[in-house]
Amino acid sequence: MPDATRHLTLANGLQLTLRHAPRLKRAAAALRVHAGSHDAPAQWPGLAHFLEHLFFLGTRTFAQQHGLMRYVQSLGGQVNASTRERTTDFFFEVPPAALAGGLERLCQMLVEPDLGIERQRQEREVIHAEFIAWSRNPQAQQQFALLQSVSPQHPLSGFHAGNRFTLALQDPAFQRALGMFHQRFYQGGQVTLSLCGPQPLDALERLGRQFGSLFPAGGRVEQAMPPPLLAADQPFIFAHEGLPEGGERALGLLIDLLGDSRPGGWLNALRQRGWLRGVKAEPLYAFAGQMLWHIDLQLGTDASVDEAIALLHGWFGFIRQSDLQHLNAQFGQLQRSRERAASPLELARRDSADQPFAALDKQALRALEALLASLPYASHGQWQIPAADPLLTAEPLAAKAPLPAALAISDALPPTREYAALYLRWHLPSPLRRALFPILGQALRPLQERAEQAALQLQFSEAGEYWQLRCAGQPSAVLRAVDEALALLNAPSHDSWQGQPNPEPAQIPIRALLKQLPDAILGSNAEPLPPCTLDQPLLDQVWATARWHGLALGFEELAALGAVLGACPGQGATATPLPIWQGRRWVDTALAGSENALLLFCPVAANQQASGRLLAQLLQGPVYQRLRVELQLGYAVFSAFRQIEGCNGLLFGVQSPHASHAEILAHLHALLSQGVTLDCTARQALAEQFVESAMANAEVAEWAWQAHMAIQSDRLNDLHRSILMTQQADLDVLLGSLLAHRAPWLCLANAAAPGPAW
Fold first, then answer.
1. How many domains are there within the chain?
2. 114-130, pLDDT tens digit by residue?
3. What is the pLDDT of residue 433?
4. pTM (2 decimals)?
5. From the candidates 52, 93, 248, 645, which is the catalytic residue?
6. CATH number at residue 85
7. Which range of residues forms the domain containing residue 644?
8. SS3 407
């Protein structure tokens, strides 16, 4: 059944969009203000971004500790904001019953922010820390360099993030500009509010009217028209002027076609030649008929760039002559699949941006024609439009077979959710696994690209001596994707053996540490590779010694699943829990970077999981307040309870441009030493997060998988009950054990240990 939607305009000018989707477990709100960094006075770069930050620092009605950020986090939800060139977005996702509380806080903080000078001074330092990290991030600098391709007169070529020097807090002119920007744009006529959830439309409308009416009345402000883009002549950057309305949606269809790597398309032509290493097409900017987008193409050293460009222009020419109605029908099928798989937050954000998961309407089709007409084209290459992808077919597989003994079935996710997940995990003691993994990853890449387009999650990962395949989404599509994936894992294509692995993109230190954390928890060591030739017989030999086990959730067609798993390589086995290391371990990752980054992982015993989760919940606010707000160590500060490789624990992360690793650890130790006080309201809120009907399907699946690896019960009701029974004494005992000198802490950092005892 399609979602029910409603659109209306409030008396104050606010545009309200409502979506009733009974299948959803959570609700979300997305509020778009039609003003961004390019609408701020040019003499104050970063003013719009700075104001976005200030909104979260508390108001007279809701102090910071009771504001939107803490409210949503306490409920296990998601919350964030983003300042773009011409828009600013605020969004959150919570349990349905909490939507009113979140919406009240969101609207109130935007209408009546506290712009006190001391608050501004503190937050400017956070903005400056973000600026430093941005200036040192290769990906961010690459994006900034792309924008330098436009005319110097266009605001896209300028700096708009803000820093300590552009945000002149003591200048009365800056303060006037800040207040005027808020008054001019944060009013009803500039706001689009989208609400999405399982609630009836009338209930959503009541909430939207109640809190949307907090904004003062106003009309739509005419945003200044930018000068022409005049992009430089670069082969993979495309600039458009004067596009009809609907250009962003039209570009979405074109990027989908471009990303289809099946035979007949541009990517397949590059891959057949052995040239393709990686590709990503993404929009960079869109406003008032202007659009800028980019193809980030990574080619092998033996590739002909000129021929790749010629092939691209030939493919553009082919698409220009194709039946756009047919292409749009296929696009609509993809969009319907994505809409079914989308989270409440994704749906609300798409609605607030007027980018629904749907086929192009007549206006957007006209924009597609204009978009194609403004692209370079030629008659070159042999092309075809692929048929509908089998991953989008809802029909179940016909083959049947018994389930293998190594596969466990969890009932944590009922089949009525129309969401299934399959986890397969291989233990491979041979060091050859490290050399073979990139080959298998390359073999799977085209399938992963198709799966992503079809709203499936297909991941192949390695950690320690393990490989893992995870596939989740619509049940019949998961079966088809896993069927293809296992065939490729058993026998990769010839091209996979010849190609070179893609270079890993540079990441900021804290993200790079998070990626290495599973390896550190498993305590894996880099063993020397024996001399050998990588080929199919060698892979067969490694598979012959592999042992696997797995978990399935949400499937009704178990016999079809059994048939698919008949091709699973290796021998079936049973899961064994990870042994916890003794004492403190420091892992120096030798990561490059000028900022200090540190992850501290404190394992928690299985019988203390409820206490650990509650302790993490109670620490989240104090850690953020002390380390980010008061000490201003940096903008990357977090704490949470995590399950990694079947190991439960508290995880703390900090990246700082000025504090040493020893200082970061000292601050964390001091916080833990202060203890926590049991908050019964927080305990109740945490317990309510662990009910199947309140958790996202992917969260339920991951919970069950982590419990399976740890040889623990996957009954959410048990955890729910244990959290409610947790007392102050339980928290004190757990904290005491974590602070003990021999507690098995794991510290992952981009430097050597500060001392033998650290």
1. 4
2. 999 999 998 998 898 88
3. 93
4. 0.86
5. 52
6. 3.30.830.10
7. 585-749
8. strand
